[in-house]
Amino acid sequence: NAGVTQTPKFQVLKTGQSMTLQCAQDMNHEYMSWYRQDPGMGLRLIHYSVGAGITDQGEVPNGYNVSRSTTEDFPLRLLSAAPSQTSVYFCASSWPPGQGDTGELFFGEGSRLTVL
Amino acid sequence: AQSVTQLDSQVPVFEEAPVELRCNYSSSVSVYLFWYVQYPNQGLQLLLKYLSGSTLVKGINGFEAEFNKSQTSFHLRKPSVHISDTAEYFCAVKDYGQNFVFGPGTRLSVLP
Fold first, then answer.
1. Which of A37, A43, A94 should we substitute to test contact with B (largest number of B Cβ atoms within 10 Å)?
2. Alpha carbon of residue A99 to chain centroid
3. Which residues pair with B111 in a beta bridge?
């Protein structure tokens, strides 16, 4: 029972490079999301998806793209990395309210990204 | 929009002492409330949740929280902490929408 799997766990980029953080879940959750965690700021929502083919912006979407072609996968793309994107990124999934389980978020173990 | 306040950014406490971590949220509409714990270099793990019913919620590792609708609070408590409880704790709220809003976190340090 893998839950939410994120890769890579660590990544160092140079300013201007692009990369994709991968996220996969095996719980058949419709809702998936990406957060970034910065000291003293908690977790801030970047993008989210309520099902395959549907994505929307969260609180801090600039500089990031997402897509949701399947229920299982929700990759996060950094188009042109900037030092301000140095952070720890978490993918999380859940059932929508009123369905399945109680709607709590299940988290991956995080991806630590450093942009030089 | 919802907001979550955790007034204490750091809480040092001696081992076997009681602890309370405070959480307040902004909205008076019906919400779901959660506490998550994050151990160093790990993801977030659910401690407990309030969905409805009894206002006193018990979670894992001996933690409990009390939902107070009039004060829009959901404080986390443990009567006797252990060294292993050293971690960062996040309060989160979800309304009838899809998204969670997290507080800034409280770093609990348990001292021997």
1. A43
2. 22
3. B14
The separation between the first and the last C-alpha atoms of chain B, rounded to the nearest angstrom, is 41
Alpha-carbon distance of B2 to A10, in angstroms, equals 32
CB-based contact (8 Å) between B43 and chain A? yes
Helix (H, G, I), strand (E, B) or coil at B85: helix
Distance of CA B3 to the CA centre of its chain: 14
Q: How far is CA B6 from the centre of its chain?
A: 9
Q: What would the two tokens of residue A60 be?
A: 């801090």
Per residue in A21-49, pLDDT (tens digit) is 999 999 989 999 999 999 888 899 999 99
pLDDT at B96: 67
What pairing do the DSSP bridges indicate for beta strands B24-25 and A10-13? unpaired
Beta-ladder partners of B43: none
B64 vs B48: CA distance, rounded Å:
7
Q: What residue in A sits closest to B33 (Cα-Cα)?
A: A104
- The CB-side HSE value for A35 (13 A sphere, CA atoms) comes to 24
For B49, the token pair is: 């949740």
Residue bearing the bigger pLDDT, A97 or B54:
B54
The CA distance from A102 to B7, in Å, is: 27
Q: For the segment A101-116, what is each residue's pLDDT rounded down to a tens digit?
A: 567 899 999 999 999 9
Judge whether B74 and B23 are in contact, CB under 8 Å. Answer: yes
The yes-or-no verdict on residue A2 having pLDDT over 90 is no
